[in-house]
Each structure stands twice: as structure tokens, then as C-alpha cells.
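Teaching assistant's notes for section 4

Start the section by putting this record on the projector. Ask students to predict, before seeing the second block, whether Succinate dehydrogenase / fumarate reductase membrane anchor subunit will look compact or extended. Collect guesses on the board.
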Amino acid sequence: MANTEIQAPRSGRIDPKYNRAKTSRGSFEMLAWLFMRLSGVALVVLIFGHLFANLMVGDGINGLDFGFVAGKWADPVWQFWDLALLWLAMLHGTNGIRTIINDYAEKALTRVWLKGILYVATAVIIVLGTLVIFTFDPCLVDANNVPLPGAICHA
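Reveal the predicted structure now:
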């Protein structure tokens, strides 16, 4: 039986012009790795707290409506809770997708474009979500300044 050598999975398949730079980014990658672990633990607490407050307390899923959200976001604690959930979930997911892009996009220009699109989308969602949480007004009015049905307006 002949002695055969098994080549590395990608050996001979990648054109040398697509090889990545040999520079080390260990410090950033270590912080990103640590962030994923810490944010994952925090997200578990935030998500289960969110689910418990929304589904187990009160009328459960039947009680989820505009008024429920208005009442919940009238409390700064829930505004902060949902804000932390939004920011951590988006940053955790973005970091995970960034890692996938680094692993699978072979061309440097492709990585730059994909990560650029990812970062812009993340920023837009975080900004819009933050604005919704802090500018939410439960008193919806029509063009004549008359409250709409279901609106929660305090006199």
C-alpha cells in the first residue's frame, strides 16, 4: 500500500492573489470573542425577562396590543431594558455576521463591501429602533388633533 498524503482542504484551490495578509489583529479579535460571550449571557437574561413580562404576566399573548406597549414604555426601566436588548442583539448579530464574512469571503474587496453594507444596515436599525423607543407617543391624533380610537391620551 502506497503512502499518500492528504492535502489541506483549500490547498491549490485559492489563487495566491486572494491570500489574506499575514498581519495579526489578535487584540481586536480577542475583544470581539469576549464581547460575544458576555453579550450572549446578557441577552439570555434580557430575552427571558422580556418574554416573561410580555407573555406570562397579565393576559399573556392576548394582552399584547398598542396599549400594552404604551404602558410598558411609559416606564423608563422598560425603555432601558428594550434599548439594551435592541443594542446588544444587533451588535451581537453584527459581530457574528462579520466573522462569517471574514471566514467565507475570499476577495478583500468583497469583504470590504459586505462588511460596509452590514455596518450601515446595523447603524440604521439601531438608530431607528432607539428613536422609536424614546420618541414613542401613545397619543395618536388625526389631522384635526382628535385622538384616534385606541389612543392613550392623558389629559
